[in-house]
Amino acid sequence: MRNIIYSAIFSLLSVVIFLSCGGTHDEKILNEDKMIDQLLTYMQGTTFEPKIIDSVKIIDGVSRALYIKGDEACPVSKGDSVYFYFTAYVIIGNSSFYIYDTNNKEDAKVAGLDTISRNFTPKGIIAGSGQVISGLDKGLLMCYLGEQSFLIFNSDLGYGSNSLGIVPPYSPLMFQVQIVGIKKN
User: pTM (2 decimals)?
Assistant: First the structure.
């Protein structure tokens, strides 16, 4: 078990050093996009769970991989109040990622993030208003009530050259979202 943990830490540190050192911004983004493409290919394979049921849509730099369809008569629109559960992952390789934030109790427990102060209720935002990082904001506008999907994007739509806690600079991100409420405004 320790060897697996050490191997994971070494892999993460290697990626952090590679992404944060050297290379132009465009080279870093190109590398992130390659990791995202490899991850999407892996996710559409036969062994990935949950099973992706719809082809991946890419709009404004956000890839959406659907695994539970929502009500297409009730899309998330700009200005709507949208309520959702999420699990946020940092992508560290072609099929490797780890959780850095969530409001899903089971995922928080798996990632060791289940503290007393953590809120496990749906997150509420005004869609398209910039209250969350750009990739998540744009991705939510691709979703429908009841949907469960993965929203994947590079660091230009995430934290860019900034780090956020355990999220290193120039990190592509993946959000697993479940849309549980929409209030049309």
Answer: 0.83
